[in-house]
Specification:
The chain has 244 residues and is α/β, with parallel strands linked by helices. The protein contains nine helices and seven strands; from the N terminus they run H-E-H-E-H-E-E-H-E-H-H-H-E-H-H-E. It has a domain of 156 residues: Rossmann fold. It binds S-adenosylmethionine.
Length: 244
């Protein structure tokens, strides 16, 4: 399995996942909070064996149907489970790659979820962690004229605008590093995803950006500037077991 170029896939997270999966062809992948299989199905198509652990029966049912439709049902296992008790659902130390995308913002105990991910990885395995960025939320609220919400997100230690905020927390580079370290993961790389789209009120999710090549090109150029990643809609960390 070869890593694909940016021109073949303008989605930077997919690009990173292809490279990570390519480290161990036919490797074992766990997707925690993998939902309906947006990432699991392409990884299974690449030859990985994928275990999706998600709390939602409905999402897992969609995943199973998508896996059958894609002809990879034999390489995807769907398990209902809680990310904060991952060791009950998956074997320890067996995974080459663990994905945890847009989950740490919502779980009750994110440090327990990270510890579970660290425990599931082989010593030389990698975790792909994707979370919502705090400063992008501040700026998008401000640009939309919701200055009170912007100020609240900035002031709140968890980066929330209040009790109606659908997320329990948002992250900046330092808080994500700290959480991962507490759970036993060391950061190998940290990228900002959606630097411009994070400024657009209501947000443009990375999947929508792909239909706009000029925006995707601009995002790629901006992502080369580390100083801008703090204002990205999402932060993407690649991490490894600290003791590995
Ligand atoms: C925002 S979706 C992200 C789905 C997918 N990772 C992605 O990036 O497209 C969050 C997913 O996490 C699942 N989830 C929420 N809390 C969970 C928990 N405590 N344990 C396992 N899965 C959980 C939800 O059912 C949902 O499928």
């Amino acid at each position: 399995m070869n890593a694909v170029s940016r021109t073949a896939t303008p989605d930077p997270v997919e690009h990173a996942l292809v490279a990570l999966a390519g480290r161990v062809p036919s490797g074992v992948v766990i997707d925690v909070g993998g939902g309906s299989g947006t990432r699991a199905v392409p990884l299974a198509r690449m030859g990985c064996t994928v275990l999706v652990v998600d709390s939602s029966i409905d999402a897992l049912a969609i995943l199973r149907r998508r896996a059958v439709d894609a002809g990879v049902a034999d390489r995807i296992t769907a398990i209902q489970g809680d990310a904060v008790a991952l060791s009950r659902a998956v074997p320890a130390g067996q995974a080459d790659l663990v994905l945890c995308h847009h989950l740490l913002e919502t779980v009750e105990d994110p440090a327990a979820a990270v510890a579970g991910i660290a425990g599931a990885l082989k010593p030389d395995g990698r975790a792909s962690i994707l979370v919502a960025g705090r400063f992008a939320a501040v700026l998008s609220q401000a640009v939309a004229g919701r200055f009170g919400d912007a100020a609240a997100i900035l002031a709140d230690p968890d980066g929330r605008f209040g009790p109606l905020d659908p997320l329990r927390r948002r992250f900046d580079v330092a808080s994500l590093r700290t959480l991962l370290a507490r759970g036993g993961l060391a950061v190998e790389s940290m990228a900002g995803i959606g630097i411009v789209s994070g400024l657009i009120p209501g947000g443009v999710r990375p999947s929508n950006q792909l239909h706009e090549p000029r925006l995707a090109g601009l995002e790629e150029a901006l992502s080369a500037h580390d100083e801008l990643r703090e204002i990205a809609a999402d932060l993407h960390a690649v991490a490894f077991p600290a003791g590995g």
